[in-house]
Design brief:
2 copies of one chain form a homodimer. The first copy, chain A, is of the alpha/beta class. Among the domains of chain A are: 133 residues, Immunoglobulin-like, CATH 2.60.40; 321 residues, Alkaline Phosphatase, subunit A (3-Layer(aba) Sandwich), CATH 3.40.720.10. Chain A is 21% helix and 22% strand. The first copy, chain A, contains 17 helices and 30 strands. The first copy, chain A, starts with 8 loop residues before the first helix and ends in a 68-residue tail after the last helix. Chains A and B meet through helix 1, helix 4, strand 11, strand 12 and strand 13 of A and helix 1, helix 4, strand 11, strand 12 and strand 13 of B. Chains A, B: InterPro entries: Alkaline_phosphatase, Alkaline_phosphatase_core_sf. Chains A, B: Keywords: Signal. Chains A, B: It is an enzyme of class 3 (hydrolase).
Amino acid sequence: MYFSSSPLGVALASTLLAAVAQAQTYQRFGTCPTLGCVIPPDQQDFLAGQYFDIRVEIHAPINGSEATNGVPDENFSLTIAKAGGRAKTVSEYFESEEPELETWDFSYYEDLFAEDADTPSVVNVASKAWRRVALYEPGDYVATLTYNGTEQTVAHWHVRDIEHVRKTKNVLLFIGDGMTTNMITAARLIGHKSINGRYQSTMAMDKFPVLGHQMTHSIDTFITDSANSATALYSGHKSTVNALGVYADTSPDPFDDPKFESVAEIFHRMYGGHIGLVSTAFIADATPAAFTAHTRDRGEYGAVIDSMIHGTINYTWTNWDGPDVIFGGGAENFCSPEVGGETYMDLDYYQIFADAGYNLVYNATALEATPSDEKTLGIFSVGNMAKWLDRNVYKDNLNGNEAAPNCEGGDANNQPGLKEMTLKAIDILNSRAGDKGWFIMSEAASVDKMMHVLDYDRALGELLELDDTIKHSIEHLKELDVFKETLILVTADHGHGFDVFGSVDTHYLKAQDNDRDKRRAVGQYEKSGHSQYINTGELRYSDSNFPSNWDPRYTLAQGFGANPDRVEDYQVNKDGPRVPATNITGFDEDDYFANPEDSPNGGGITYNGTLPVSADQGVHSLTDVTVFAMGPCQELFGGVYNSIDVFFKMAECLGLSDVPDKGHGGHGHGWGGKGKGRNWGKVGGDGKGYEHYGEGKPRYGGKGGWNQGGRKREFKKRNGYH
Amino acid sequence: MYFSSSPLGVALASTLLAAVAQAQTYQRFGTCPTLGCVIPPDQQDFLAGQYFDIRVEIHAPINGSEATNGVPDENFSLTIAKAGGRAKTVSEYFESEEPELETWDFSYYEDLFAEDADTPSVVNVASKAWRRVALYEPGDYVATLTYNGTEQTVAHWHVRDIEHVRKTKNVLLFIGDGMTTNMITAARLIGHKSINGRYQSTMAMDKFPVLGHQMTHSIDTFITDSANSATALYSGHKSTVNALGVYADTSPDPFDDPKFESVAEIFHRMYGGHIGLVSTAFIADATPAAFTAHTRDRGEYGAVIDSMIHGTINYTWTNWDGPDVIFGGGAENFCSPEVGGETYMDLDYYQIFADAGYNLVYNATALEATPSDEKTLGIFSVGNMAKWLDRNVYKDNLNGNEAAPNCEGGDANNQPGLKEMTLKAIDILNSRAGDKGWFIMSEAASVDKMMHVLDYDRALGELLELDDTIKHSIEHLKELDVFKETLILVTADHGHGFDVFGSVDTHYLKAQDNDRDKRRAVGQYEKSGHSQYINTGELRYSDSNFPSNWDPRYTLAQGFGANPDRVEDYQVNKDGPRVPATNITGFDEDDYFANPEDSPNGGGITYNGTLPVSADQGVHSLTDVTVFAMGPCQELFGGVYNSIDVFFKMAECLGLSDVPDKGHGGHGHGWGGKGKGRNWGKVGGDGKGYEHYGEGKPRYGGKGGWNQGGRKREFKKRNGYH
């Protein structure tokens, strides 16, 4: 408009290609800047005794900026040495057989110019993988890959020196998906009354004694998705966007990527600890999935559900016999294909869970009535569960949702909320776990999902529901007399760049006839005023802190750095979750414009987006997110740290560090105790009888599309949510 | 564009007027929803012994939605009672004379419709003020105003029960103005190298053991400015936008509003503690000003500077003899008017400070060489000081700035940074304070100022300079062997709704010829990549963590919910701070458009703003901000609390709570000790010889414009920064 741009086009593109090896956003392989790749890569930390896989890849690009002769060296070797010790080959070190050589190829674009020109770079790969190894002795290790004769890639690994003392019996981990400090502040404003600058009540989170910040970035990019951020929180290993419980490799198979154990797997293996998974998302979604799934592709929802009950069956791995509780949405990954289910191996997973002894419940009434001494699967809707705002205020929106969990097209209009699910989960876990203790993850998934679609009201409603759930969970733990032996954590997996910057006089906004005049409705600073959400109106929700008026004249001026084209009327969307951007007839399906239906109250302001036009919603942001801690070990969680440290701190508190005994008689600490033999540094040699040993049959052997060369995978997306 | 708006216009406006008493953004008087007003208002907390003023106002609107007969009741009475005690008149309670009745009128608009129609509501006021009182006994108090016969307004006050034990000798308080967690995360990304998801170094802030969040909102609006947020941090009393060290009243005089004592004033009064003020802003700006200034109008810069050396001279107040150190910009409020100074009473404040024994320095070289045993005033530029990025990378921008601190039009091209100023301040305070201890406030002011103009690079540069200053200050305190007796705090006064949501391929962006195609340059999630700021380039800044390349191909996709019209090219502004929006010839001066010069690198994307078109820059946001704490009392600063609690925690740590003795022999605790007599609850009766007693001569008696009726004040703005 005010500038003249210089279309440099193809000429610029070609001169740039020479430099794209340094390009940071289009990566050949994010964890490997050289042609010899060790996974786990450099700078990784491990919990003592935590199982993991090792993979080596040798890359031979056949074209592009790093072109070689295209023949990857197959005579590479990998050695491992503990600091000060002798280097041994990896097979020698772990007393395992030398694995078979694997080969494949993949392709990628070096930058956007290359993508526009459709000139992919193709890479041939030679690889080996060592499965289920573990390091027990704390300290530094060096893994050295030698290839192409004298080329070397060195990976520094570190086993943390964490004492094996169990300090908590239980862990209750709340995750507000996508929840930032900014959102907590906004939720407090609309949910709690303030008089002359003093809140008359505050959030349950505000009352936690210890506060930390954790860094959410991926291993290879600075913006994460929920799959690899959940992986980091649960396993102490950062990974790549879309990966669950594995480091990404470049192979086409989404199930052969190098795995590492999650806190749930270790806790269950070491202590027989009981696990509960609760989410308002479809339950195969990333945040619940990352406890048991080990796949490069979070979109393999059917396999994710299978992993929840069977664990990892295609390779030797931790034994697993299913959580005590799974509560959430996502019926489509359980229902028989006859009624439209999209399940693993086309099986009926309701039947599989029932056959495994699970009690099945499908609505809020049944959930409340169900006994607390049985393993329970509660699936309450197809897809993501209904939002707090629709369940409690705009209830008509549940009619016609066709989300009944039997997948037969009826409505799911009797869904529980996060609070009801979590309190029941606590009851069940507490009655079943006995001295072994329990670990429950409870996720407010739609903070994220509603922020993605810029539906600030619903997102803040979900956040307030999470806070209400926390409040009632604490009370319930006290009633059950287990509060003092339960570590309670509240955190998030990443942020969205949301904040509130004033108020909006929605009456004035509507009364103006052009966008520039409408903007005057935004009240800044001294004109931002008080919150009208809590001071007026008639809505009351028992004893809880929620807005009493979701549709006041003066609303919040709020928003995002990251957004698609949109129309902002800054009023609640009474008809259900917002759809900010849509395709316009006659344009490409990846060319989104502001949704003309997205100002149901009339008179919104139209904005062009900051994201690629292929984006129909907002995206995640960089910001560190908060960790609130209360209970045993709370003192570990103060200050600023990396997301992986949340895992190490939880593991420390649960006594999961399997360090060698120091001559004082085994690991009898904490709840439940244990005694076992162990061979340090030996594959599978922990003296327990594992059902699966050695390389099992790949679960997804020849599935169409996956074994083809080329890396331009189409990861499945569900509503495009990350 | 896609919607049809309904211009309801005047008809809607008139129907709405009946309801505007509930309107939250256009307030008659924010702390007083009724017609009888007590200040301090309901819900206020006090430190025991903290001086404050009381004001009562009776309002009689003559028109508008609350119209009365227009005659305010002059026979009102105010009583005070301690919980369980007998109510006494305020004059009786504090053994003071009954003050004289004051009257005035003011006007305001009830909402935007009224402002458009220029139909102000006018209010007649009757008022009394009781000056410099204090409450000493911890507990609850009730102030009851009776007016119009039987109408009552009740204010609940609370004196916190804080032990009088001094736990720290010194306090070093860093303020990153406008700094949020999101910005710290972004600064870490561009200033610290990461390998496979592990930072190889981290921020100094990241190493603080204790983390808290504080709520920044005003007493009467949810978005604050820096004046009243600094007031809350320093004094434990939230106030109104633009107010420093006072509760706002409605009178036209900006110097008669009810005051309260700041932490610096109390510390200096009780212990003779030494004070240092350091800022990269003009030093009369809000954050340094709020320690000594007591005015409704932060724009009274000359008077602010006078308060720094003389304290409050128009009313009985705490004795004050000036900080040991004042370092910053803002020469214009010191220079003689003969060379363009804008000073209090047209005096030469350089001369006044010199006469008071201050050593004066004007540039970085002189600062370094100046002795550490003298009171020192260092003023290094007209206006705000140069930014780190311009001082260190784009140094040519300092040429021609005409900011020489003698105000004679030369360049200020030898300015120190925040680090140099803060380390020298520590030296001076430490050598001068002896056993009395010191309190230094060091402000990175231009985090805020550069975020206001959407100059993300400069803002993050300032943040990294702050972090570097913290790092070196900790080292220096250790060298001086006072680290263990110094509480170090890092916090902010408010946020800006900033976050990073991806990377930008600036080459690709420039090569496209329309805005929609340009947006494809934004890399989300797996395409966000690594930071290129730290991995490439040649810039090196001694031992510190700053970007080595400020102008990489792949930059950050970042931004704001709140912004004026703008052009984003997502590249560093090499010519100096960004000017995002300008007037366009032929339009109103309050009608801002994207600055056509604001894409110096070419090819930016044009966005319409989210703020009123009168905004030429971004605005503050709601988010809670971080408190980092290290040192004595650090444990007080964990968790989530209100901004005022920062004051109470500092006061607790410094032993400033003047609670009655409990029979064990006076207040001899901590460093320096003290012994004094005190009459609880008595005006001015603390047994010390104050220079000023009784109602002094109003400093600004008949200044033009201020004693006229009407409240539509034009507060002075400097570059429009908040």
